[in-house]
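Recall that a protein's primary structure is simply its ordered list of amino acids. Everything else, from secondary elements to tertiary packing, is in principle encoded there. The following example makes that idea concrete.
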Amino acid sequence: MTWDGLTRWGRELDPDHPWPEYPRPQLVRDNWLNLNGRWEFAFAAAGETPAGYQGEIIVPFSPETVLSGVGRQLQPDEWLWYRRHFDAPTSRTGGRVLLHFGAVDQSCTVLLNGSEVGSHTGGYLPFTFEVTDHLQDENTLEVRVRDLSETGFHARGKQRLDRGRIWYTAQSGIWQTVWLETVPREYIDSLSLVPDLEAGVLEVTVSVIEPVEITVSASVIEPVEFTVSASGKVVSTGSTTAGAATRIAIPDVRPWSPEDPFLYDIEVRLGDDFVTSYVGMRSFGIGEDEAGQRRLLLNGKPYAHVGVLDQGYWPDGLLTAPSDAAMVHDIETMKDLGFTMLRKHVKVEPLRWYHHCDRLGMLVWQDMVNGGGRYRHLVADLPATRPVRLSDKRYDLFFRRSAAARTEFRDEVRQTVELLRNTACVAVWVPFNEGWGQFDANDIAAEVAELDPTRQVNHVSGWIDQGGGDIRSFHSYLKPFRLPSRRWRDKRVLALTEYGGYSLRVDGHDWSDREFGYRRFTTTAELAAAFEELHRTRIAPPIPRGLSATVYTQLSDVEDELNGLLTWDREVLKLDPDLVRRTLSTLNFG
């Protein structure tokens, strides 16, 4: 059977209205205009303007994807140009208009009606430009993109121009929603929502953008009014001033958990500006179980982080899921199998993905997106089979010589924490994975902990451990996993953050003629027996002795990697769901 490369959601895509949902669930306004859909595109040599546009591209899908309608790789020595026309929002009179990009990979310059309105570098993070003074009744928006992929030092995740094995097709350009939003002259820029579950209090801080003609002083800034509701019933109200942290009592607080993912609704008003949001009241921490083993805590009690590695790649959209419903499918399927956590692997998803984890009840370990030069065997491959002890201050070995690139990474770490800090689901930050662009991991772990003291930090997932953070993390593919000796000297929680990777090809559901996996199987029965045996003999025994979190590789097949629980098109679950549930239920974390 020949597969056309599309998922069921890709076949249902409306190219005029892809991704129509409001893209920012924790700061929602009514006045917005979705700019996804049909744009024009052109490829040109770097530094050159195209003679003309060459065809149509469906935004927000990268030109390398099937769903974009282009199917062409952007090269490092090229620019990719986008163009679309739109009418100005009718409600902009007297206020401001903001132009939002969910993500553009890697660097871009934005022009509106021929004038440059801004530029941005960082392919996985959102950015915004105010375009009020550039708008006309009829407008032309252009975006110029350059993507160096692994030939540069910017964040790239698992993308590589010469894809293969564990590295995936490099993609470029606009890959998340583009949208316009109208706001008053003085408007709410961001919210910080920090739950204090033990005290039954929510700490709220509102950041405000003021008109430039106003001199900043408390006397001229309007008060911010807020309301907190539970299931439609108001439970708390109050007011604060912009920039001031205000603690709001939540009576009879209902904790958020994967078993009961209860979310409180929040309304915030500043003069003519009105936004809605939500929060989950929960706490994370580290403590001891009844046997004295250090465990990850949720709401003050030991909680089993039974996870699966989630790459977030799709055959028809690559980094961009074909639809909102497709993202929900992955989360719901893993939850139904008995997993309580997804490790989002070197990717920042659209904000709606985290919203679905919040409302469905799925913990998230959030990787930062790796960058740096092309990785060396010494730090990226060799530690899989033998211990390698290196200081990650030796920047040359980790391909981190560029001081500017190191600064850029640190800045993107900070932005990622700020972007996702309000989510209920994110439990652990993971700055580095397997020596990919690693540097100063202990210092960065401390910086993350200072930015967000409410969560734990896994400073390095896998190798090469530097002794920092809250979690000591191991990967086990090519040799059996064993707890380290003398572990009582290390006060960190122990976690097996990658293991398994068992592959099985399912004909008609994968297009690759290669098969990558750490053990290969030819029948479902063989895979099932191996999955059970792995957990019974290798994973379950160390749990009573201190292993506190696990991450199975992986959620779905991706290109050459045929080691997913699901096929790449998400049509076939390779293992019987009852077998997976039964196996995972034997992992007793106390």
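Confidence is low (pLDDT under 50) at residues 214-219. The chain has eight helices and 36 strands.
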